[in-house]
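Shipment paperwork, digital attachment
Item: protein structure file
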Amino acid sequence: ADIPGLIEGAAQGHGLGHDFLRHIMRAGILVHLVEPCPMDQTDPILNYKTIRSELSHYSQELARRPEIVVVTKAELPGASEIHHTLSEELQRKDIHLVSAVTGSGLRQLVQRIADLLAEYRSPAK
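Attachment content:
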């Protein structure tokens, strides 16, 4: 699910929040793309945390779904720093850094998505 425009307060019905969040409920895993240099000049780390908060407020089940975090636009200045900071703050080493322009990291991301989907769909789940 591509969820553009999920804003703070979405879980309380602000904007199109409930429509977006209801749509996300159909997703088995979440792939969260973090833009390192948002055009509105907001903080990408805060943006990530805000969306995670909205997911939690809407549904604890949704918040517990498997998630892959991806910092996009690796070719831009500052993307590596955002990747590093996000990895440290979330205390996760599996945050991906990718570039659609150069192709960097895409193969590894696709493999990780395939692996996680296989885990999610296994009978043991």
